[in-house]
Design brief:
Elements (H helix, E strand, L loop, with lengths): L3 H10 L7 E2 L2 E9 L6 E7 L1 E3 L2 E5 L10 H8 L2 E6 L2 E9 L5 H11 L2 H5 L9 E6 L1
Antiparallel strand pairs: 1-2, 2-3, 2-6, 4-5, 5-8, 6-7, 7-8
Length: 133
């Protein structure tokens, strides 16, 4: 995560005026439903537009386990996504094997550390496609 819940709080309060532009890239807020608690869980994530959709990466800095937000959306792909003041319902899915190479290049271009993260883990780091509902 970036700045964790403080980042989420400031982003939501300011419609992304604080928190959207971060370290030379762009951040959105992804809200999933906790698979155990059923409670909303919001996470700041680097994103990029891709056609009519948006992309995020389930990297967790190259950790061996998927981030919890990714596990949550696997259980329930109905999510909320916020870019600046635009908060909308969406459906999340993992990029297919055919889609992934070009999508990965798009994300690594905005955050080159993604290419570093893949060297730290044996898991394939998922690229997630967010499509408006």
């Amino acid at each position: 995560m970036l700045f964790g819940q403080e980042h989420v709080k400031r982003y939501i309060e300011t419609d992304g005026e604080e928190g959207h532009d971060w370290e030379g890239t762009t951040v959105a807020i992804l809200t999933t439903k906790g698979r155990k608690s059923g409670q909303p869980r919001s996470t700041p994530l680097i994103y990029q537009p891709y056609g009519d959709a948006y992309l995020v990466v389930a990297s967790k800095g190259g950790a061996d386990k998927h981030p919890l937000w990714y596990v949550n959306l696997q259980a329930d792909p109905e999510v909320e996504f916020q870019i600046k003041g635009d908060r909308f319902k969406a459906r999340a899915r993992t990029a297919t094997a055919e889609e992934r190479p070009d999508m990965w290049r798009t994300m690594a271009a905005t955050w080159p550390a993604y290419d570093e993260y893949v060297t730290k883990t044996d898991r394939e780091i998922p690229v997630v496609v967010i499509e408006r509902a």
